[in-house]
Design brief:
By secondary structure, the protein is an alpha/beta fold. The chain contains 4 helices and 40 strands. The chain folds into 3 domains: about 90 residues, MurE/MurF, N-terminal domain (Udp-n-acetylmuramoylalanyl-d-glutamate--2,6- Diaminopimelate Ligase, Chain: A, domain 1, 3-Layer(aba) Sandwich); about 210 residues, UDP N-Acetylglucosamine Acyltransferase, domain 1; about 35 residues, no CATH class. The strands form 6 sheets. Strands 8-11-14-17-20-25-28-31-34-37-39-40 form a 12-stranded mixed beta sheet. It has a 10-stranded parallel beta sheet with strand order 9-12-15-18-21-26-29-32-35-38, with no helix packed on it. Strand 39 and strand 40 form a beta hairpin. The termini are far apart.
Length: about 350
């Protein structure tokens, strides 16, 4: 495992050392399992108290904490951001040697950059283009006319249907399918006639898709995921959906066809969004909400059917009062008696 001095880490993180700047750190671990030589981190006073009493040699902190046990502290502007920056130093991703595994099937018309890695049992279709530094870990399928920009990484068992386009540094986790048919049918003569889905999917730079995500290709045109957007596991994104830049889409979300979502939108777990809606920039949708209306910019919505959060919270508070209100009504009815006058 790599080793760094406290001073080296502080320089990389834009922080400063309080204690032994020459201290060698060889790992990163949570406070309850850290050992000598490890760095841990603390976001608040309670976490810092545990970290300071742990076996860790150093603590990554934001704020003016003081160790009572003599630990070396790395003071940084934001402990969680520094945590995200330091983990890749101690736990670098596996390095995959350039080249094509003998068991891979790569079309003669495909273009594979010499620095790319095509792992075991991968299939690369006609006229596909695999950019510099791309990694197909194993058993991945890249269909005809797909394009993978620089530094993309496909984990095992990813499927890209034909004409899918990936920008730079796109990461797609196991079991995900990009570009399957959109769910398009028209009722004709007592049966559901399939509407051919002839579009494609575009994933822009720095998109990450979790495991078992499904993104359907457009009926016409493109289904689009914007730059920097992160999609969690088990999400369904239907045909002709457009999601803007730097959005967060949490697990088990379903987005119906042709809905347009702006930039910096947060969609929490198990949200369902109906088709042909417009979700503006910087919207937050709470978990398990059912969205059936357009949402203006910057609003927070929740509930099913979803409403602005303040409206929904007032309704929830009213529902909580119902048992007491029913008890009081029952008591009034008892006191009024059959004649309707108070006893």
């Amino acid at each position: 495992m790599p080793a760094f001095s406290a001073a080296e880490l502080a320089e990389r993180l834009g922080g400063r050392v309080v204690g032994d700047s020459g201290l060698t750190l060889t790992g990163f671990a949570p406070a309850d399992s850290a050992k000598t030589g490890d760095l841990t981190f603390a976001e608040n006073e309670s976490y810092f108290a545990r970290a300071d009493q742990s076996a860790a040699s150093s603590v990554l902190v934001a704020g003016e904490f003081t160790s009572t046990t003599g630990k070396t502290l790395l003071h940084v502007p934001n402990a969680r951001i520094a945590y995200a920056q330091v983990l890749p130093l101690f736990f670098p991703e596996p390095i995959h040697a350039p080249g094509i595994d003998p068991t891979a099937v790569v079309s003669a018309t495909a273009q594979v950059d010499p620095t790319a890695h095509i792992g075991p049992l991968c299939i690369v279709g006609e006229r596909a283009r695999i950019g510099p530094g791309c990694v197909l870990v194993g058993q991945d399928y890249v269909g005809d006319d797909c394009v993978l920009g620089e530094g993309c990484r496909l984990f095992p068992n990813v499927t890209l249907y034909a004409r899918t386009s990936l920008g730079r540094r796109v990461r797609i986790h196991s079991g995900t399918v990009v570009g399957a048919d959109g769910f398009g049918y028209v009722f004709d003569a007592g049966a559901h006639r399939k509407v051919p889905q002839v579009g494609h999917v575009i994933l822009h730079d720095d998109v990450e898709l979790g495991a078992n995500v499904s993104i359907d290709r457009a009926a016409l045109g493109a289904t689009v995921i914007g730059r920097g957007t992160k999609v969690d596991n088990l999400v369904q994104i239907a045909h002709n959906v457009s999601i803007g830049e730097h959005c967060i889409v949490v697990a088990q979300v379903g987005i119906a066809g042709s809905t347009k979502i702006g930039n910096y939108v947060t969609i929490a777990g198990q949200v369902g969004i109906a088709g042909h809606l417009r979700i503006a920039d910087k919207v937050t949708i709470a978990a398990q909400s059912g969205v059936m209306n357009h949402i203006p910019e910057g609003q927070k919505w929740m509930g099913s059917p979803a409403q602005p959060d303040r409206v929904n919270k007032r309704q929830l508070l009213a529902i909580e009062r119902l048992p007491e209100l029913l008890r009081r009504v029952h008591e009034l009815e008892r006191r009024l008696g059959p004649g309707g006058d108070l006893a």
